[in-house]
Amino acid sequence: MADSVWSNYARSSKGVILDMCGVLYDSGEGDGVAIPGSVEAVKKLKASDLKLRFCTNETQASREKFVAKLQRLGFDISVAEVFSPAPAAVAVLRKRGLRPHLLVYDGLLPEFDSVDKSDPNCVVIGDAAKKFSYENLNEAFRVLIGLEKPLLFSLGKGKYYKETDGLKLDVGVYMKALEYACDVEAEVIGKPSAQFFQSVLDDMGLQSHEVVMIGDDLVNDVGGAQQCGMKGVQVRTGKYRPRDESHPTVTADGMVDNLAQAVDMILSQRR
């Protein structure tokens, strides 16, 4: 990206939102692996005058366990800085008096301890990984199809994500299967939901035009942010594919090799 564009970002921006998986680290066995330069990039942002938040569709662990993993990888991150779909979903369920059938990873179940799950009147689906068996999907289908007005919540709608051993199918694939089978449209909680992004902006106390989103997912990170009025920058790490640079409907405001490069370019223009 031209220096003039980065200069405009630096002058107008008061905050940065970072995606996590594929930007900070690649998930996998154990804690995963930090992407080179990302730990130092976060330190530089925290030492600057920019407000910083982390926005993830991670739904395989509670925020506390997820943040602890990132801290072990060397990142300076607190739970209060991280926005993820599960707490947002709990707030929606409680506000609307809903009782969910959960199709989520076991590590996420504690997030829903405060919600009544008896006699379900909706389904919540997250990245359940190996829990996405035929039996479990069919059980969720039976709950939905048995409701007079099927109600499906999806914790994100990503197609795939990257782990250290390669690409993995994400929750959006299974969400679409239930939508098709039950003639229902899921309510997405998490990226690219405008409401989800707005909750992050509200916490930062900033307007959308004052914030840059940096992610590896062109549609859900970059496109979702742009729909809310933010600038969206894509990194060439994580789930990035070369075809992203010629996507028919979403064009990133900037493309960078990694988070470290993006941060250096933004901060160099603020000096």
Quick structural gist:
This protein is α/β, with parallel strands linked by helices. The protein has helices at 3-12, 38-47, 63-72, 85-96, 134-145, 171-182, 194-204, 218-227, 259-268; strands at residues 15-18, 25-26, 33-34, 51-55, 82-83, 100-103, 122-125, 152-154, 160-163, 166-169, 187-188, 211-215, 231-235, 254-256.
Structure explained in plain terms:
The structure is a single chain. The protein is of the alpha/beta class and 271 residues long. It folds into two domains: 3-84 and 191-268, Rossmann fold (3-Layer(aba) Sandwich), CATH 3.40.50.1000; 85-188, Rossmann fold. It has helices spanning 3-12, 38-47, 63-72, 85-96, 134-145, 171-182, 194-204, 218-227, 259-268, and strands at 15-18, 25-26, 33-34, 51-55, 82-83, 100-103, 122-125, 152-154, 160-163, 166-169, 187-188, 211-215, 231-235, 254-256. The strands form four sheets. A six-stranded parallel beta sheet has the order 5-4-1-12-13-14. The protein has a four-stranded parallel beta sheet with strand order 6-7-8-11, covered by helices on one side. Strand 4 (51-55), helix 3 and strand 5 form a beta-alpha-beta unit. Helix 1 crosses helix 9 and helix 2 runs parallel beside helix 9. It is globular, with a radius of gyration of 18 Å.
Strand content: 15-25%
Ends distance: 18 Å
- CATH class call of the largest domain: Alpha Beta
CATH architecture of the largest domain: 3-Layer(aba) Sandwich
Name the strands of the widest sheet in spatial order: 5-4-1-12-13-14
Task: Tell me the structural class.
Answer: alpha/beta
Q: Radius of gyration, rounded?
A: 18 Å
How many strands, which pairing sense, and closed or not: the largest β-sheet?
A: 6 strands, parallel
Tally of strands: 14
**How many domains?**
2
Shape: globular
Our count of helices gives 9
Going by CATH, the homologous superfamily of the largest domain would be HAD superfamily/HAD-like
Q: Which runs of at least 5 residues are low in confidence (pLDDT < 50)?
A: none
Mean pLDDT equals 93
Could you give the order of the helices and strands? HEEEHEHEHEEHEEEHEHEHEEH
The portion of residues assigned to helices is 25-40%
The CATH topology of the largest domain comes to: Rossmann fold
